[in-house]
Amino acid sequence: MGRVSPMKCLANFQHRGANMNFMRSILIGAATLAAPILTVTAAYADVAVLRSVSCFPIGSPPSVPFEEMVAEINKRGEGVVRLDLLGGAPAIGSPFQVAERLALGAYDIAGCPEAFFGNLIPEAPALRLNEYTFAELRENGALDYFQELMKAKGALFLGRHQDDGAFHVYLADPIDKPDLSGLNLRISPVYTAFFKAMGATVQRASMPEVYTLMENKTVDGYGFSLRGISPDWYKVTKYRVDPGFYHGAIHTIANLARWETLSPEAQEIVSSVILEFEVRIEPSSDYAKDLDAKMRATQAENGIQTITFEGADAEKWLSMAKDAAWSEFLAENPVTGPKLKDLFTKSN
């Protein structure tokens, strides 16, 4: 190999130095460009993301208030907490398994009526049978006691975000007295005991199945809350029985372990929104009464006639609804039932 002159060596060195400076400039530039990205990523990493689900089909009347609540929490919780709505039952699975899956950690937040988390906590029906406002339940210790039962199952009761009004019997054909003998009715656990006590045979089915069951006359009617009824059902429903019974409340529940990992700020944002929804939808509020009046008018406009029991018939209808439900409840909860009945009802 020939001898390389000192001048050539210097030139090579300067060339390599220039390349190194060039590479250093690229790296510095890349780091500068990446800094905002890293900052944004870090900011998003601080946001608590909660997996949320509805116990009803997304977009259905009973699910919409939960979806609105999720949107409001996300609006107020920007940069702190976000609820990702994964879907609703039955698309995500049986609504009767949502609460159990939530307690096991599959979900963090769920919007469900108590009928759908009775598998997790058998004392859940006390929520629909209550005779107080929710503000009163928070004051008299009823919800504190119920919360103890929820926590023992790995879940947390956050509040009632919606009340769809009283439950009613909806029929294809009229009845002239408070007697359901000979009728086959679609049910949920909410009114099973009542319908049976009134002589009906019953059939459980998911919400999306109701239209088909009514259309092909597999069932003669169904029970559902006043404001939760699907508009699709108007075509197969001819009568609504008054007065209504119980209340179609829908609640927000959470996975206890996940909730306890949230910052106080995140917990406060979620809780405050739920409480605002709870107060707004109280059945005695003007807002709720207005919704009821509009729904009654809408049902009438769509051909649903009202069968109204009065006097002794109305008293029998309502007393049977209450007595059948509490009788079933106390039989299934002999230890906790008496205390819950005392806390949730005004007369025992």
TrEMBL record:
<dbReference type="GO" id="GO:0055085">
    <property type="term" value="P:transmembrane transport"/>
</dbReference>
<dbReference type="InterPro" id="IPR018389">
    <property type="entry name" value="DctP_fam"/>
</dbReference>
<keyword id="KW-0574">Periplasm</keyword>
<keyword id="KW-0732">Signal</keyword>
<dbReference type="Pfam" id="PF03480">
    <property type="entry name" value="DctP"/>
</dbReference>
<dbReference type="InterPro" id="IPR038404">
    <property type="entry name" value="TRAP_DctP_sf"/>
</dbReference>
<protein>
    <submittedName>
        <fullName>ABC transporter substrate-binding protein</fullName>
    </submittedName>
</protein>
<dbReference type="GO" id="GO:0042597">
    <property type="term" value="C:periplasmic space"/>
</dbReference>
